[in-house]
Design a protein that fits this description.
The protein is mainly beta. The chain contains 1 helix and 8 strands; from the N terminus they run H-E-E-E-E-E-E-E-E.
Amino acid sequence: MKTFLVTIFSFLLFSTIVSAQVVGKWKTIDDETNKVKSIVEIYEIDGKIYGKIIKLFKEPSEDQDPICDKCEGALHNKKIIGMNIITGLVKDGDEYEGDDGILDPAKGTVYDCKIWVDEDDSNKLNVRGYIGFIYRTQYWFRVK
């Protein structure tokens, strides 16, 4: 019985540590310009992972509080700041994944998603959006 309880406690502790690694604020980088694009806050509710944009880095001449005019459905013409772009990812080993799990507000496109903390650098988050076997991975960096 004692071994069983230790095993259960260890599993719960490990699960909490893994989710805690992805939870937090992450800096996104534009693939084309290599400039900081936004800060996304990743959080957990009922064992699922969500992420919302809390800050955008825009040029002075750009709209500082843009709307998602390319988004469809309930997100159409909603403000991007405060918008959930990661929704309902569930744990699968050391990763979190979900169908239609990430939104690119610049294109209004939703992709299946998988995220995981880089095994060599806990301050680097791998964010993969994909459709079928075609995917692209971005690297986000923990905000300290």
